[in-house]
Amino acid sequence: MTPRPLFSFLFTLAALAASIPALALDYRTVAEVAPVYDAPSAKSKPLFVVLAGTPVELVVSLEGWSKVRDSRGDLTWIEKKHLTEKRNVIVRAERAQVRADADDKAALVFEAERDVVLEFMEPVPGGWAKVRHRDGQSGFLKAPQVWGL
């Protein structure tokens, strides 16, 4: 292939790739204590109860039911009425450092231990997220420290 046709081919390939929508993960939060099941029916086997505030990844949505993945990777079914679009995240690091600004050198506001749930407020450029603890403290942490973004 000569350089010009190769360039045309690569340009076309790049244009095609840009036209494909990005696959974004869709997260929800469990609004109230709710049972999860092994199939989309209240008559199916209940597996366990999920606490209010738990973030989940929405995998499939059917009439009245959602298949969700939790932070451990477990797939279960939950009634849609128990989910809210409010976004929470769960700390995956041993200790997540929440800072006053989206900067490693910013003052430390607080530390959150593994499995602490935080309210997701907004994404911040550079791989940071603004979060709020249920006691009202808020700040910025590095996105890889949490699950649910």
Describe the structure.
This protein is mainly β and 149 residues long. The chain folds into two domains: 26-86, SH3 Domains (SH3 type barrels); 89-147, SH3 Domains (SH3 type barrels). It contains one helix and 14 strands, in the order αββββββββββββββ. Strand 5 (65-69) and strand 6 form a beta hairpin. The model is unreliable at 6-23 (pLDDT under 50).
CATH topology category name of the largest domain: SH3 type barrels
> Strand fraction band?
over 45%
Tally of alpha and pi helices: 1
Under the CATH scheme, which class of the largest domain? Mainly Beta
Looking at CATH, the homologous superfamily of the largest domain is SH3 Domains
Mean pLDDT equals 88
- C-alpha termini separation: 43 Å
- SSE string: HEEEEEEEEEEEEEE
CATH-defined architecture of the largest domain:
Roll
Number of strands: 14
What's the story with the biggest beta sheet?
5 strands, antiparallel
Q: Which range best describes the helical content: under 10%, 10-25%, 25-40%, 40-55%, 55-70% or over 70%?
A: 10-25%
State the main characteristics.
149 residues; mainly beta; SH3 type barrels; 2 domains; five-stranded antiparallel beta sheet; 11% helix
